[in-house]
Give the backbone structure.
Amino acid sequence: MIIGITGGIASGKSTAAQTLGEWGAHVIDADKLGHRAYLAGTQAFDQVVATFGADTVGEDGEIDRRVLGGKVFGQADKLKALTDIVWPAIRMMAAEEIGQIQSEQPDRPIVLEAAVLIEAGWQDLVDTLWVCVVDREVAVARACARDGFEPSAVEARIDAQLTNQERIAVADAVIDNSGDPELMVNQLKQLWQTTGAATQ
């Protein structure tokens, strides 16, 4: 069983994935893969430098994500050029890790947590897609408290992402994380048992 978990900013997707990990699932964090995707020596590293310039390489010889972010922020064409490089690299690493776990521990449930799972078209990697949703005002408050962002910055990020409705439209299950954390855990537990993952 491969469970895909996605959602917008401060929706609780990482908490959901971590909880399933505590229950025995092998968790693949696409964000961590994203950090590895264009390390020096990789094809993606070379493509990023060729596309966005040598000044994207920091003093440590790695891509300076802050510089790179400044080059693509608010520019849809440049952001697409970056995701066209990075997303395939992340997908390849995720698919390799899934294959490795399935080979070594064929009965172990796998969780792929990815904020861009739908946007990147990775649904075919998972057996079921669980979407975490949260009310907009709750997401803004949580992200500001957690990351120290200004509300306007959080709202800009929310507006740049898929809407809850767009995610729900393609979801196999929806986890509402607008309330008490215990309520989310209860929803997760019910889904976990319903899928049969808990008994694998």
Remarks:
- The two ends are 9 Å apart (CA to CA).
- DSSP finds nine helices and five strands in the chain.
